[in-house]
Structure formats: C-alpha cells, structure tokens
Design a protein that fits this description.
Strand content: 5-15%
Protein name: D-threitol dehydrogenase
Keywords: Oxidoreductase
GO molecular function: oxidoreductase activity
Distance between the termini: 31 Å
Helix content: 40-55%
Number of strands: 7
CATH class: Alpha Beta
CATH topology: Rossmann fold
Oligomer: single chain
Strand order of the largest sheet: 3-2-1-4-5-6-7
InterPro entries: NAD(P)-bd_dom_sf, Sc_DH/Rdtase_CS, SDR_DHRS6-like, SDR_fam
Order of helices and strands: EHEHEHEHEHEHHHE
CATH architecture: 3-Layer(aba) Sandwich
Number of helices: 8
Pfam families: adh_short_C2 (PF13561)
Structural class: alpha/beta
CATH superfamily: NAD(P)-binding Rossmann-like Domain
Largest sheet: 7 strands, parallel
Length: about 240
C-alpha cells in the first residue's frame, strides 16, 4: 500500500495541514507530486523526498484557469491520482449566512472538485488505474450547527463521488471520498479552541480529533492497488462521532 513509485499525484489544497501531510506521505512512498494551491507551494518541494515534484498556483473559483492548468500538469507528468483536498469552512447560522459566502462555499467545495475531475479525466483514463479521492466531512452525514453551507457542499460532494464512480469505473478509475471529523490543523484548532473544542472531543467516542497523518493514510489506502475494488464509497474517519 505504501509503494507509489512511478505514480503522479495531483493534490489540491497542498499548502494546508492535511495537504502537507498527504504530500509528505505520498512523496515518501515514491510518488511524483503536482502541488496545487492558491498559495505558492514552491518552497515545499525542497522538503519532500524524491524528484520531479512541481508547484502550481491555482484559483479554484476560476473555471477557465482549472481548464488550462490541469492539462498542463497532465502533459508534463501524467495524472494517476487526483486528490481534491482543498476546501472552505466558513460557518455561520443559516439565517445569517450571506449569499456570497454560500456561493463561494459551493464553488470551492463542490464545483471545483467536479471541474478538477473533468479536466483530469483524460489523463486518469490513460493511466488505466486512475484514482480520485474527494475530501468530504462528517458534516455531510449529520447536522452540525452553523454548517448549513458547508454541510450542503460536502453532502453534494459525496453524491458527485458516487456518480463519477459509476460512470468512470469502466475506464479503470475509482472514485471515493473521505469524511473526517475535526482534524488537528492550525486552521481547525482556531475554530475549535477552548471549551467548544473540548466539548467536541467529548462528543467523539475516541475522545480526540483526527491527526492529519491519519487522513493521509486513509487517502493512500484508497489510492493503492489493494483498494481497487473499493469504488463510490465514503470512508468515515470520525472516531465514531456519526455512529450515535
């Protein structure tokens, strides 16, 4: 499961906490990475094992930019694996959510993964064993206060995952999702600090948040040859939060 030698991985949200963990894990396993983020990821490359990594600055709200950039990545190194990790998590009570923030949340969390998958499709098909992993959330499965826009976008992403899995399996491509609980990234720990965070941990049967390395390991499994029969699934990595 840990040998990705010769595989090319396109990873969005590469500069964030989960993205960094995924980049480090796949690079250590021999993969060649195309790091995609709105921030410049060039500095990450020197810290990753292996060679042939590249960094691409991309605004995921720009459909034309996605359509231009993804083929350039594919032409340069191929695309065997696409991980749609980038996401937006601004939360607010439903009655206070602005239309602009609602639309931006859907654009980043739902439209962008579809556009990335569509643009990467020819290269994933050429791979013969392409893999797509979409980063969803426990908020797609259960109601969480102030998560109307976020939860709707992530629930939609699971539905998209299933449709792509159905349509593209004939080309050797599997499409799966991961739905974590709160993950211990700098951004998440700001939003889930203090008593709010401690109560959230108490609500999780294992009593803690997820670690970025655990989510990276889940993605590696779904992208491995050993997981070739798993398609259209949502791997819930929530410490049991949603089983109640």
């Amino acid at each position: 499961m840990t040998d990705f030698t010769g595989k090319s991985v396109l990873l969005t949200g590469a500069a964030g906490g989960i993205g960094v963990a995924m980049a480090e894990a796949f690079a250590a396993a021999g993969a060649r990475l195309a790091l995609v983020d709105r921030a410049d990821c060039t500095g990450m490359i020197a810290d990753l094992p292996g060679q042939g990594h590249s960094a691409w600055t991309l605004d995921l709200t720009d459909a034309d930019a996605i359509a231009r950039t993804v083929p350039l990545i594919g032409q340069a190194a191929g695309i065997d694996i696409l991980i749609n990790n980038a996401g937006l998590g601004v939360v607010a009570p439903a009655e206070e959510q602005s239309v602009e923030m609602w639309d931006l949340t859907q654009t980043i969390n739902l439209r962008a993964p579809w556009l990335m998958a569509r643009a990467a499709f020819p290269f994933l098909k050429a791979s013969g064993a392409g893999r797509i992993v979409n980063m969803s959330s426990q908020a797609a499965l259960v109601a969480i206060a102030e998560h109307a826009a976020y939860g709707a976008s992530k629930a939609g992403l699971i539905a998209l995952t299933k449709v792509l899995a159905l349509e593209w399996a004939q080309y050797g491509i599997t499409v799966n999702a991961i739905s974590p609980t709160v993950v211990e990234t700098p951004m998440a720990l700001v939003g889930w600090s203090g008593e709010k965070g401690e109560q959230a941990k108490r609500d999780i049967p294992v009593g803690r948040f997820a670690r970025p390395s655990e989510i990276a390991a889940a993605a590696m499994y779904l992208c491995s040859d050993q997981a070739g029969i798993i398609n259209g699934e949502n791997l819930v990595a929530d410490g049991g939060y949603t089983i109640r």
